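My main concern about presentation is that the manuscript never shows what a single data entry looks like. Each protein is reduced to its one-letter sequence and a matching series of backbone shape codes. For the editor and my fellow referees, an illustration may be useful. For illustration, here is how one protein appears when written out as sequence plus structure tokens:
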Amino acid sequence: MRFLLSPPLLAVALCGSNLIGADAFDVKSHYTKYEYRIPMRDGVRLFTAVYVPKDTSEKYPILMTRTPYCVPPYGADAYPRQLGPSQRFAEDKFIFVYQDVRGRCMSEGKWMEMRPEKTTALGVNDTDESTDTYDTIDWLLKNAPQNSGKVGLWGISYPGFYTSAGLIDAHPALLAASPQAPVSDLYMGDDAYHNGALFLIANFSFYLDFQKQHNPQLPDAHKPVDYGTKNGYEFFLRMGSVINSERYFEYRNPYWTDVIKHTTYDKFWQSRNILPHLANIKPAVLVVGGWYDAEDLAGTLKTFNAISRQSPETVNTLVMGPWVHGGWWRGNGDKLGDIGFGANTAQFFQDEIELPFFRRYLKSAPDPDLPNAYVFETGKNIWQKKQHWPPADVTPRLLYFHANGKLTSQAPLDASAFDEYLSDPNQPVPFFNKPTLEMARKYMDADQRFAQSRSDVLTYQTEPLKEDLNIAGPISPTL
């Protein structure tokens, strides 16, 4: 077993929930599309696309996604290739709702990064993402054709944050929600900063695309950046201080400016932490994430833990698979890089966990009897059902650094001993062994032994393991 210790070089991106579908199911022949501009309590109208089954023999529950990444294709006669989390949902028949959140794409109003939740009593016109979700559901129940009066929410990444927001002071008709890889605390682990370290390479490319717009209209087109190289390592070294990045944004992207301006965990970031608000949750919750998620691994686990701690009576299930960011939705999940997992883990999740969860709470289908945690154990490549997470039967283990790169469970005798290295900002440790201009998600499972020959990387290693060792639960380094 091996731990590498080096100066932190981290990278992530906020990924959009772009619809990727299958060709076998013809959405247009089975669903009728409606486009609405739904008024919020302060008069701002949010663009909403609604897809209703053409089969009028019964009523259907609503399954909604709210996103800042646009909900194309626009136009009443334009249809996406897929509806819902998987094709099985479209075949099972729901009313699918997609909404441009406030201030993005075709919706009115002003958009704000991770819009803070209101912490005081709301006035008649006070809004946040929770009230926008509530008002949307209330309007849909009164106006969407053939709805059964039951509503579910789901979303991946940033839409996962909006799903979490919808859980707060939820509309009574909201019965089930699935925040998937949800952004929860941008500074303390998700996307922008990982415990204080800016994920420069990924955030730089993300905010080049995600810029301010003038509503109501689609985002403005922007001129692509000429990196002058295919090697991001060279590009960012040549750029120098991160403040120099502003010239690539032509000093026009306030979202990027906020990210690089607020370098400490100040009120800007604290107010955007949604976790303290996830209390007294009434809908059933399915929190989903991937062990190899380079963007929002922390957000998934923190969201599950916050709901478990602050809302202990809530039905709250964690699902963790062998996936990258969103890998349970836009891939098979059968392998990652050179590592194979022996099965189509994405389809197993979609068919055996996700769809049964929503059918249980929105269609009164049989209870799938989900455990507190449904986690994939790599190595053995099997799904494990756990009634507690972290598992109740684990034994805490401490591992200590020793001289000569040894790693053991015995505390060192000399408490004052130390190892040291010289960190040179002009020669940073690369996170990946190939040139890249964007964050390569493969680094999460890549062989990083290439870095251990450097003088500024310390490697600590145990003796060869004599038997299998299962690691489950949080790993917390203390330096």
